[in-house]
Each structure stands twice: as C-alpha cells, then as structure tokens.
Amino acid sequence: MQLNHDYTNLFEDVHTHVKESAEKLGASGGALFIIQNDKVVTESYFGKQSHASDAREVQVDTQFHIASVRKAYIGFAAAYAIYHGYFSMDDPVAQFVEDSHLSPYEGVTIRHLLTHTHGLHIVDGQLVSDFHPGESWAYRGPSIDLLTMIIKKTTGKSVADIVKDEVFDPVGFQSTEWIKMSQPHSKITNTIRDSDNIYWTVTDVVDGSGMNMYVSAQELALWGYLHLKEGKWGDQQLIPKEIIQLATSIQTPNPELPIHKNGCLWFVKDTNHSFNQIGDAVPRGSYQLLGYTNVALLVIPEENIVAVRMFNRYGSSGGYDYLKDIRSFGDLVYKCSIKTSTTGV
C-alpha cells in the first residue's frame, strides 16, 4: 500500500519547532513525517546522520535509534498474545517467573507491567517493590524485561518474531529492525550522547527485548497509521481491530488515580496534568510514545493524524526542558491539524 502525498505548508510551525528542538539538543539531523486523512501531508529530512564531515545526509531510508518508542512494538506483541489467549491482562506475573525470591512479584499482574503501575525496581542488583501494585506509577525497566520474557515463554515467539510475521513482512517494511550494534550499517544514524551517560546500552540481541531498534521516519509513521486505522492496511484487515484497541485504550487499573494513563505501554491522553507528556490541547483518546533519543510517535484519532519526529540525540543538553518541548510539539501538531480541517486540505 502506498499513501498519496498531498504536501501542505500548514504544518510549517511544526517543522520549525522540530528544527529548533534539534538545534537545542545538538542533534546532527532529524526528520518530520505527518499523515493526515490517509495522505502524507508533511515529510522533511534535515542534517546528517552524524557530525562527521563526510556523513550521509538524513533521507527517507535513514534509520534512527528510537529508544523507548520501541515499546509500541512490545505493547503490540503483548496485545497479540492476550487476544490469542496465551495469557490474560490480569494474570499474576509470579506464575511465569522462575525465581526463588517471589515476594517482590506479590500482587503484580500483566496489567501492572503494561501500565507502569507494578512498583518493581532494581536496587543493588536486587528486585524490590517500591509500592503496592496499582497504587502509583513509575517508569522503570524491570517491566520490559518481564514482558518480553513472558511473551516468548507463552507464545514460543519473540517480540521481534511476532511483529515481523504479523506486520513487517506482510506490508514490506525494509527500514524497521533491531540491529546488532557491533555491526552498524550505513543507513543508521550515529546516536549522539554524552560519554558519561549511564543509560546507554549496547547489545547484539535482536529478539526485540533490547534497546537497539532503528526505524525510518516513514515506517514509524506507518506503524502509527496501522494503529490509527485499527489494524487495516489498505482494504485488508491485516490485524484484528481488537488487538489495536486493547493496545491503545487505557488499561491502567485505577483510572481515578492522578497518574499517567497507559494502554499496552502507550501513553494515552485522559485528563490534563502538569506531568503529562501529551500537550493540553491534544484531545482525549490520543496516544503517544517518547524515546530517550527524543524521537516521538503521536496518534490523534480525532483529527485522523499521525505525527513522527526523529532526532539522533540520546538524552539532552543542559537547560533543555524535554517535557515542555514534547508537549508543545503535540499541541502544535493538533492546532495545525485543525487548520487543515477548516481549509479543506
């Protein structure tokens, strides 16, 4: 399936915002890709894949390290497994782990892992529980390790296998992959980072469990578009819509708590909070993921729009307010999308 292009300058403010953010971050390049009403309305690439003088220009097949945005694929695999009956949302995690020390898992379910309400935390190499499951929210790594393990244990397939078989191969994605980081190829960006950044990891494991996923702006936007269309790809219902609905609707166990709301790892807009990464202007029901490389994937069903921004900067520079920046990105996308509605574009 090929989407038609109907480029418009109505998203010029978003383009300016993205380029200014790249400059503040010290990224060597970036990209912006927006789909609205089943057409590509904005597509731009700027800068180079690294700061090297002979670096390749950022272009349509350039692949960026998407960091935590990879959770859109892990969340899909989890929803796939739930839909097909391999496990349920409220199954206790303890039944899947082989650990003699089970007390930290007490009360923790798959739902808690998917919504960051599990309370699990690694302290001095030991897994501990910081709060009773479902009573608070914390963005921490153990949930991803557990989810990818449980998905593989129950389905017999890794996250990478599931998304490749269900989506990547059927639609022909060529620029979406987990790569062996010891063997980079010419189309991936050099991820610019501070030498003392403790969060950077290097791995050659390509089963979907690691933070080594590289995707082009176009294919990340198309991944979002598949979700916007609730699993339809052209005229074909490629993925059961129930899988997408499960992944992108609020699954947080206590929606009344003043915490982030999540679907299957997606951040889902509910009400406005000062800590929300989705801007105040963006309507309820929208969903987004933001990576530590400042890559973002935003889907606004109310305006039939998908927006992707790509940078190659891991972390940020001093004085950069990432929360203010991502909120204003979303607000601008939404406000510009309203312009297209009123002008008939």
From TrEMBL:
Residues 17-316 form the Beta-lactamase-related domain. It comes from the Bacteria. PANTHER family: BETA-LACTAMASE-RELATED, BETA-LACTAMASE-RELATED DOMAIN-CONTAINING PROTEIN. It holds the Pfam family Beta-lactamase. InterPro entries: Beta-lactam-related, Beta-lactam/transpept-like, Diverse_Enzym_Activities. This is Beta-lactamase-related domain-containing protein.
